[in-house]
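## retry 2 of 3
previous attempt timed out at serialization; input unchanged, resubmitting
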Amino acid sequence: MEDNKIKFLKNQFIPLLASLDAKTKGQWGILNAQQVVEHLSKSIQVASGKVKIPPVTAEEHLLKVRNFMLSDKPFKENSKNPLMRDDGDPIQHASMQEAIEELTTELNYFFAIFEKNNTLTTNNPLFGTLNFEENTHLLYKHALHHLKQFNLIA
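## retry succeeded, writing output
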């Protein structure tokens, strides 16, 4: 596992998001900054196994989507997430600060759960069964996608 991805997720990811105002809109997409933070928390909950969502990718397409997910190719702007409402999910927290606190808690839980059991795998509804390295790669790739959306990284 590339330590730089782990270091980025642990040290840089959340401070970058915390610099945004809750209602800031990205360069693309329908979500405002707080909705994105809450969306990222949900994806981390899936990665840690805390939230279980049934598979949505057909078995015959799984290898292709997994290969893309494990590549360094970025997600496209306006990628359609079949798990998300067309108008975005409603805000769950009273403030951006609360959403950031939840994101921090979920990210810490993700690393802690895999530290306790390094052979753990979790089921991602889009990409199938993932181990720690695969989940970390996906979380990193997903983080970069949304940070670019809000001009927080190049």
